[in-house]
């Protein structure tokens, strides 16, 4: 259910607890279903079926809540990093405004050239010269 990814923050403890409670409820659902089909006199089949269905629904609820809590931790980390970047850029802009300039810092990027291969015949017809 939960994958380990170093880019994601740790899974909250409450999410792990709810995941295991969901697994235990799923096991309980299977046990109740087996008891319903066992044929023992001391087991009420209707109650055993009802408890199997109820345990299955509770298991779905726990696992769904655990996954939601995990995703909330991921979204929270992403939002915090975005606000941190925006705050940094706002601080840089404020520093630039204090010095009288109104431009953001230039981030150097590698210049790449586009290479287009055109057959010689087509290039001569269009008037393109070789370098």
Unreliable residue stretches: none
How many separate helices? 3
Mean pLDDT: 78
Order of helices and strands: HHH
Beta-strand share of residues: under 5%
Q: Any idea what the radius of gyration is?
A: 31 Å
Number of DSSP E strands: 0
Structure report:
α1 (13-36) runs antiparallel to α2. Helix content is 65%, strand content 0%. The chain has 131 residues and is mostly helical. The model has no long low-confidence stretch (mean pLDDT 78). The chain is elongated. The protein has helices at residues 13-36, 45-98, 120-126.
Topology:
Blueprint: H1 13-36, H2 45-98, H3 120-126
Considering the chains and any ligands shown, give keywords for the structure.
0% strand, 3 helices, 131 residues
Summed up, what is this model?
With 131 residues, the protein is mostly helical. The chain is 65% helix and 0% strand.
